[in-house]
Structure formats: C-alpha cells, structure tokens
Design a protein that fits this description.
Blueprint (H helix, E strand, L loop, with lengths): L26 H6 L4 E5 L8 E6 L2 E7 L5 E5 L13 E3 L2 E3 L6 E2 L5 E3 L16 E2 L1 E4 L2 E4 L13 H5 L2 E9 L3 H8 L5 H4 L15 E6 L3 E7 L5 E7 L3 E6 L19 E11 L2 E10 L7 H8 L1 H16 L7 H5 L3 H12 L18 H20 L19
This protein binds FE2/S2 (inorganic) cluster (FES) and fe (ii) ion.
C-alpha cells in the first residue's frame, strides 16, 4: 500500500486496495471526488473573504461574494503561481494580488490587466468547483462533470438546532472511518467521559449488519440494550453522543436538551496524513434555541484547540491519559485523538503487525466493503448507489 502518489492502474481481484491514499489520480481519491464533500463551516466565511483550503492533497481558494454566494477555484494562479486566496473578491470573481489576473467562479481567466491588447485570458482556465451550503457547512464537488444530486437528511432538516463544526485530526482519514465501526473502543477510550452514561462496566459483544447505505456497528449487552452506529458510504458516520459531551463531567449539561445529540459526521482527507472531522450535530430540545444556547457552541473552537494541545501532551508522555478528563472541555475529542494519532499518521495494517480479533468484525467488514467498492469503481468508473432508507438512525444505547 502506498502512502501517497499516483495510482492509475486498476487493482485486480486479490490485490489489497489502497483506501488510504486520496491524492489526485489515486483510486480512493477519484472515488471520493464523485461525492459532495463538506469542507468548511459556513459562518466562518464572511462576505468578501477568501480562505485557503487543502483537500485530498489539492489546494483551493474558497471565497464568498459580497452577495453571499460561495465559490471554489484552484488556489494557484495560472500566471506565476501566487495564491488566489490572498487576493481580492470582486463580485463572483477573484483577482490575484501579484499581477491582477482575475478568474470567474468556474475558473475561467477573465482579465490580464498588464497584457492590455495582447490578452490571452480566454485560453487560460483553472479548476472551478460547484458549491452547496447545507446545515451550516459548505460542500464542494471536486469531481469531473456534473455533480450528483445533493443528499439531504430529513431528521437534520427538522431539528430545532444543528451545530456545524469542523476540526482537524493529524492522521490518515481511514483510521477515523474505521472508528465508526469500532464501538468496543467506547468501553475503554471513553470510560471517563459523558459516554459513561452507557454503564460501561458491562462489556458489549460487537457485531455488524449490512445496510443499503453501508454498515451498522452494533454493540449489544447481555441485558438486551444495544448501541448502534450507522456508517454510510463513502465517508459518513451517524452516532449519538450525550449532551454532557462538551463539558467536564458534573459541569452540567444545559437544561434545554431532551435527548442525545445526533451526529451526522464526515471524514474528509486534507492529505494522506491529516483529515477533517466534520460534524452536523442535531440537538433534541424543548422550545426554541436562544442566544445563550447558540453561544455555547461557539465555545467549541476554544475547546478544540485545548483538546489538541492536551492530546499532544498525552502522546508526548507529558500528561497521563486520565488527565484528559480532568483538564479538557471536550473530552472525547482529545481521547479519540490520542488513540487514533497513536496508531501512527498512517496506521500499519499489515497482518503481521496488527492482530484483529472477533470484536473487530465491523472493521474487517468495512475494509471488505471498501475494497469491493473501489475495485468495482476502478473497473466501471462510477460509484454504486448507497441510498439511506428512511428512518435509518443510530441508537444511543441507554435504553
Ligand atoms: S501570479 Fe497571479 S497574476 Fe501573476
Ligand atoms: Fe471515540
């Protein structure tokens, strides 16, 4: 398995499939580019601003017009390579700050001011990508040709409040995809967190189910209680987290929430060594969310920085694992970062190095599913259909 680089050959039946590398030209990279990908929190992109964005090893400029429309183009100016995200947003276009070339939202060069009568702008084009705003997130389609129909999620559309958050995790994206199918980890990684509400003394038996959308990881207990996480192709996890999640234990969940938060989560590669964790968190609540409730979510940025710092110290041996629960305001974030980054920036899945057990059946099923899908995609050029049946949702596990 290559860590990065160009893969243009189709994998044959028995060869392991590289789902780790997602740069341009890789099979997994071409596959993921066939789907809309969430890449930015909409409220963080103000009108008239442009931001640099790195996704699957490629650099983009994401910008918002004064009228509020979001656009995405390649970040490299075709003249001599300056970063367009450092330039000026002019209507729906963006102008390079080096010599003033301007590009429309589809990447067409529309102005070369220093060339005057010799302008060859119409021969110059960079990549321009469709965008879509949904649930407070900006989605971009990075593939070729027409994008697929955008998938909406009714339960999230109907929720009284959805919090959009993105944080960066410094390891390969597929480690965190595997984590969707690894409910056993809750009983160890998250014992000292709000997930302790699950009664974590009672160890689960892990199983999986195939669904039309992908897979479900089922953690069943002897008393019949089940916790279920849904994994949807190609990179979506749906799971439930207790509202105490963003507080230290005992610091108090807010009083307005009436049930577990439902996470619609995406894992989007930045490159082969880093990925985005993208969350659209639907909260069940009495009444309407007020300003103080909304403000609570803005605290997340600070909590995220703190969690990274604490996770780094645990990884460096400067803090102990259980210090996370004492110090962090976003405990599971730091706990998951320690275990996933601890696997290595790219986990080694050589069967002589890792040793899977029966509690890893979900992970083995996920790898098979992904390998089969990528093989089929390499042969046909189109992804399979992965519809989410109405009502397919996670189960928290406390009932
Ligand atoms: S590098 Fe962009 S205009 Fe020259
Ligand atoms: Fe976790």
């Amino acid at each position: 398995m290559t860590a990065s680089g160009i893969e243009t050959r189709s994998p044959s039946r028995n060869e392991p499939v590289d789902y780790v590398s997602t740069g341009p030209g890789t099979v997994a990279g071409r596959y993921l580019r066939q789907f809309w990908q969430p890449v930015y929190v909409a409220r963080r992109l103000a009108p008239g601003w442009a931001k640099p964005l790195r996704i699957m090893g490629q650099d983009f400029a994401l910008y918002r017009s004064q009228e509020g429309k979001v656009h995405c183009v390649d970040n490299r100016c075709a003249h001599r390579g300056a970063m367009l995200s450092t330039g000026w947003v002019e209507g729906d276009s963006i102008r390079c700050p080096y010599h003033g070339w301007a590009y429309s939202a589809d990447g067409q060069c529309i102005d070369q001011p220093l060339e005057k009568g010799d302008s060859y702008a119409k021969e110059i084009r960079i990549g321009g990508y469709p965008t879509y705003e949904y649930l407070g997130l900006i989605f971009v389609f990075f593939g070729e040709g027409e994008p697929p129909e955008f998938t909406r999620y009714k339960e999230w559309d109907d929720a009284k409040f959805v919090a959009a958050q993105i944080d960066v995790r410094p390891c390969n994206w597929f480690q965190n995809i595997e984590n969707f199918m690894d409910e056993g980890h809750i009983w160890f990684t998250h014992t000292k967190s709000a997930l302790a509400k699950l009664d974590l003394d009672n160890l689960p038996k892990i199983a999986f189910e195939k669904t039309p959308w992908g897979l479900a990881c089922v953690a069943g207990r002897a008393d019949g209680r089940k916790r279920i996480v849904q994994f949807g192709m190609p990179n979506i996890g749906m799971f439930a987290v207790h509202p105490d999640n963003t507080s230290k234990p005992g610091e108090g969940a807010n009083k307005v929430e009436t049930g577990w938060q439902m996470f619609l989560d995406y894992r989007v590669p930045v490159d082969d060594y880093t990925h985005l964790q993208v969350h659209a968190i639907a909260t069940m609540m009495q009444g309407e969310p007020d300003e103080s409730y909304k403000k609570r979510w803005e605290m997340f940025d600070k909590a995220e920085a703190e969690a990274h710092q604490i996770a780094g110290k645990v990884l460096a041996g400067e803090l102990q694992y259980d210090d996370i629960a004492k110090l962090c305001h976003h405990i599971p974030l730091a706990q998951d970062e320690v275990v996933q980054v601890g696997q290595g920036r790219i986990a080694n899945r050589d069967p002589n190095i890792e040793h899977l057990g029966m509690s890893d059946v979900g992970i083995a099923a996920l790898r098979r599913l992904y390998s089969d899908e990528l093989r089929a995609f390499a042969a046909s050029g189109s992804p399979s259909a992965w519809p989410r049946p109405a009502g397919l949702l996670p189960i928290a596990g406390d009932h």
